[in-house]
Amino acid sequence: MKRLLVLLVLIAAAWGWHSYNDGWMPQSGDGVSTGQQGAGRGGRRARFGGGEGPIPVIATAARRGDVPVTADAVGTIQALNTVTVRTQVDGRLLEIAFKDGQDVKKGDILAKVDPATYQAQYDQAMAKKAQDEAQLANARADLERYAKLAQTDYGSRQQADTQRATVAQLEAQVRADQGAIDNAKAILDYTTVRAPIDGRLGIRQVDQGNIVRASDTNGLVVITQLRPIAMIFNLPQQQLRAVSAAVARGPVEVDALDSDGTTIIDKGVVEVIDNVVDQTTGTIKVKARFPNERLQLWPGQFVNVRVFVDVLKNVVVAPTAAIQRGPNGAYVFAVDEDETVRQVAVTVGQQTETTAVITAGVEPPVKLVTTGFARLTDKAKVRVSTPEEAAQPPATAPGRRGTREPGQGQGRRRDQQGGGDASGAGSAAPAPEAPAGTDGTRQNRQRRNGAAPSEGAPPGGQGSPAGGSGAQRPQAQP
């Protein structure tokens, strides 16, 4: 059994070798030269690593510049002020003077409550004051008379003192009446509901005609101040020292970013740093303020935030794509003047999605490889391109598909028709002579179709039923 298996393996190996050398490769009689066969094998060897040229790469020069030191976080937008508008008196809602989502100013009328009861109370207070003022005037006149009589001993001094006390009581009563009037006037004014702040109204909570009370929890509507607007975000406690130092130096800029992390929605400043670190999360709460002139920030919205803590002056800056990581740390491929690369170990400081600060290892204006690391090794030969050159579309070579040159299509149709026989095609000019390898190729195509080429067959279509349609079909032998 083992001998049989060994024999089968040997037969399969021999058949594979035969197929590789003879069965799959055209013979010399088929019009393919030995040099072309060698070129095909050489192409396979080149495809597996032999005879490769310079490796194409894209390189960008390192530079010196100022790099901002930032702290990124996710913040929550909060309204600077939020007010639930409630009526301060009870009564029937006569009028709603606003629309949902309307922008209002402080003092704008929002609603009106039935003022009839409160107007009556105000009128009563006014009447009571008038009554007391009349009594006060009479008491003052009596006091003046009693005082004169007491001076001439025609009246008692006790009577004059009693009248003086009566005048003082009536004066106090008049002042009390004025207070009651002010109170009734304030309550009467409460029947007109006004906006307490500038902001945008939400959806109203009650409809016209309902009985509203001062104790209602929902209120009439909610006003939210959107300009300016606040943001609350948390930073790790490790960054507290840097942020506090930046706030002490002056206003700290804050950018509100879109979900892509690059589009700036609005710019603001840090307003306050909380006075305690959250022991549960180890973070510090920071509040920033944004002008929000275009109303792109909305209360309750989650946005990315970037705080500019400091600026690194005149440092070496390189693209982040050039930084590679290995067992020994970070390194880059630097391009020398002879278009070879060398692997250089570097020390990376701050790194973002696009740029990296290199504190040691390279100096400008060295070029650093950013694309093409797959086959790159130390001392490898490269062909360098800039990002601008790589972004340009490649030029189309002349004569390829899609760029027909003048007269090219007519010549191809003339070759396909095989017009070389004056009697078959009626052409005045003979067909151009085929290249050296064309006959062998036509013979190979005919051999694959199962027909042998005829000796001395004319290149035209003489004797063909189609009258000049190509190679002549061989006739059957009796």
From TrEMBL:
Comp. bias intervals (Low complexity): 387-400, 424-440
Parts forming coiled coils: 122-149
Ranges where the Multidrug resistance protein MdtA-like C-terminal permuted SH3 domain occurs: 314-373
Keywords: Cell inner membrane, Cell membrane, Coiled coil, Membrane, Transport
Domain Multidrug resistance protein MdtA-like barrel-sandwich hybrid: 81-224
Positions with biased composition (Gly residues): 458-470
Subcellular location: Cell membrane
Stored Gene3D superfamilies: 2.40.30.170, 2.40.420.20, 2.40.50.100, Helix hairpin bin
Positions of the UniProt region annotated as Disordered: 28-50, 380-478
Domain Multidrug resistance protein MdtA-like alpha-helical hairpin: residue ranges: 121-191
Primary localization class, coarse: membrane
Keyword Glycoprotein: no
Ranges for domain Multidrug resistance protein MdtA-like beta-barrel: 228-310
Domain of life of the organism encoding this protein: Bacteria
Family per similarity comment: Belongs to the membrane fusion protein (MFP) (TC 8.A.1) family.
PANTHER family the UniProt entry points to: MULTIDRUG RESISTANCE PROTEIN MDTA (PTHR30469)
UniProt xrefs under NCBIfam families: RND_mfp (TIGR01730)
Stated name of the protein: Membrane fusion protein, multidrug efflux system
Lineage, top ranks: Bacteria, Pseudomonadati, Pseudomonadota, Alphaproteobacteria, Hyphomicrobiales
